[in-house]
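Q: Given only this backbone (157 positions), what sequence would you predict?
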C-alpha cells in the first residue's frame, strides 16, 4: 500500500505494508538512523520519536497508524548544520555513554521542554520514565535536560 509520511518537514511516499512497525519504516526504509529499535515492546524508549508533537514509541505504532502525521526524529532537531540546544546540552553534560538510548531521551526531552520550559526535577523524571539507559545512572541525563531548559529559555532554540 502507498503511504505518505511527513518526517522532519520532508514528505516521503513509500509502498509498504501498513502493519509494519513505524520504527522499521523510519530506520530501514526512510533512513532515519536515530530511530533505534531495541525491545520492540515499548519498554526501553530507544525508538522514541514525536508524532504530532507528542513523544511516542515508534515500535508500538504501525506504519498505517502514523501515515499523514507530522513525525519528528533527532535528525530534525539540528538547524542549518548546528546542533539544537538539547543536543548541545547532552554533549556538554556527558548525558550518554554508549549512546544507543540517547535519541529516545532527546526526543522525550524535546516534547517535555515544548510543553514546560522550566520543569522541576520531578517533572523531568516523570517525562523520562519511559526511557531506559543501562550506562549512565541517569544523573547526567537529568543534568542535560536541566541545561537544555536553561539554554532554550535564553533563546538558544
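A: Predicted residues:
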Amino acid at each position: 500500500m502507498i503511504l505518505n509520511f511527513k518526517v522532519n518537514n520532508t514528505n516521503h511516499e513509500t509502498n509498504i505494508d501498513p502493519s509494519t512497525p513505524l520504527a522499521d519504516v523510519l530506520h530501514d526504509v526512510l533512513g532515519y538512523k536515530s530511530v533505534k529499535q531495541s525491545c520492540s515492546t515499548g519498554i526501553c524508549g530507544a525508538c522514541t520519536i514525536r508524532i504530532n508533537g507528542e513523544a511516542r514509541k515508534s515500535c508500538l505504532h504501525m506504519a498505517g497508524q502514523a501515515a499523514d502525521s507530522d513525525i519528528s526524529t533527532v535528525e530534525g532537531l539540528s538547524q542549518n548544520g548546528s546542533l539544537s540546544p538539547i543536543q548541545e546540552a547532552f554533549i556538554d553534560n556527558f548525558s550518554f555513554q554508549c549512546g544507543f538510548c540517547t535519541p529516545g531521551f532527546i526526543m522525550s526531552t524535546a516534547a517535555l521542554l515544548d510543553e514546560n520550559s522550566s520543569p522541576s526535577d520531578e517533572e523531568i523524571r516523570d517525562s523520562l520514565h519511559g526511557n531506559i539507559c543501562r550506562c549512565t545512572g541517569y544523573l547526567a541525563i537529568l543534568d542535560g535536560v536541566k541545561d537544555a531548559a536553561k539554554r532554550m529559555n535564553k533563546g538558544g532554540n
